[in-house]
Amino acid sequence: MTEQSDAEPANSPLTKEILVYVFQWLQDDLESLAKCCLISKKWCHVAKPLLWRSPVFYKCKQFERFRKIVAGTPGVAKLVLELDCDGYRREIMAYLQKLLKFLPNLEQVVFPCFASLSQHSLVPVDSGSLSKLQKIHYIEVLPSEEGIPFLTTLFGECTKLKELSLKLYGFSGISLPISFPTSHSITFIELIGDEFEETLIKSLLQRLPNLNRFELCADDVPRNLISSLASHCPKINQLKFEFTGTYMDVTVHNLLRQMIKKFGGRLKKVGILFSREARVSIPEDLINKLWRSLVKLESFSLSYFMITDMLNKLAKCEKKSLKELELAYVSNEAASLNTWENFFKACGGNLTKLSISFSKLPVDIGEVIARHCPNLREVSLYFTNISDASVIPIVQRCHSLRKLDLNTTDITAKSVESISEHCTQLEFLMLDKADNNSCPSEVEPLFSYLRKYGHRIQRVGLAGWTMTDELLRLIAETTPYLKELRITNGEYVSDAALEYLINKCARLKRLHVIGNSDGVGISKELLKKSDLIYSCN
Known about the structure:
There is one protein chain. The chain is of the alpha/beta class and 537 residues long. Among the domains are: 1-53; 432-537, no CATH class. It is built from 20 helices and 18 strands. It has an 18-stranded parallel sheet that branches. Helix 15 (388-397) packs parallel to helix 16 and helix 17 runs parallel beside helix 18 (469-478).
């Protein structure tokens, strides 16, 4: 890239449009983008907003620079519009909360549920900046005198807010005032807590007339929750319930019956997730009725519910619109292959995302999946008993795979070889295994694969496989967009190879090296040093 000529001024619409396109193309490569900015100061007004819009910290030292610049340079702080903190170290997330008051133009702020925002962190220096917020995940509201006033401010001043995730623990006996404002902008709300009384939920839903997506994770569910949703939120088409407490069967039965009656014909996304403690028994005919009522279903998730006994019944109702299916803890006894075949034949034709985890499956279920789910882009079969007999047909026939998660399964080097031969578009490859008794030759197929397609890879898990200096150096040289790597320490890998990878992979955010040094392999000193380098370790 060179200096532009005087014939085309830097502020002309055409030049700016071209530069925005170029900088957006380079946005993932922040080093190149920064170098482009240095070539001509005329371009800074175009590049800076892109560079600072959604800051990403790969290493802890990058966060330290960001912290100092934002706290001391208001002009730069105003350019930060999106802050996604999910995955960072706890100490980084804690400091980012303190920095929020310096970011007056934030439109999106995302924190993980386990390290959610404090309501005090979201009080900016300029109260008018709340009107710019469009997305907030997750914020913890205190059940104190300040809690309801804070929610009132949130609903009243965040006039552009579309997505909101709230943690409301200890709100039993608390109600909303009559003057609590209505939000016409919020279309998605997620509530996490222990107990939600019917009056609180009903009052809240009355203020959300344009809600189309509702998620609840609680120890107790209000009896008339579905009726309140149907009465006050007529646009609802996505529901997700996570039952974390010990429920009476009748409570869940009534909720499902109401879902069928009030929403069955229009729901596109449904999640019913039980905890290990829930132990709810649901009649097969009720699940069958729910499944049949979901005529527009596009996404379905279910956990801690034994589904295999009723697969044949569910298979009798086709789900041609189903695109995402997520099942966890659904089988402790493998249903017959024929049963799974009938099921996938009925609902697998348009699936793009399939996840079955923590379940016992027919070891060759992959043949059925490959036959009936040709459009899959993401396949996750982690913590199951599947073998090469399942993996090989999937990778041979599903040509659009972007994600393959086979963590802790029974695969061998044959699967690695088949993946290397057929998967040309993978971005996420997780092959971690529990044991560590492989030999270096078992991962040799990855060498040619990385040379051809390593530029696509962003996340790799090879823990349990024998890592060598040669493979580690090849990963460093062929995966410029690598963000996460999991490997096992051992006799064939050295400090020099790991240091080479650390210096080479500029975008690496998380590096996990399993196992301490016992005099061979990577030293304890380097392991400790590398653990402190990355922002997400």
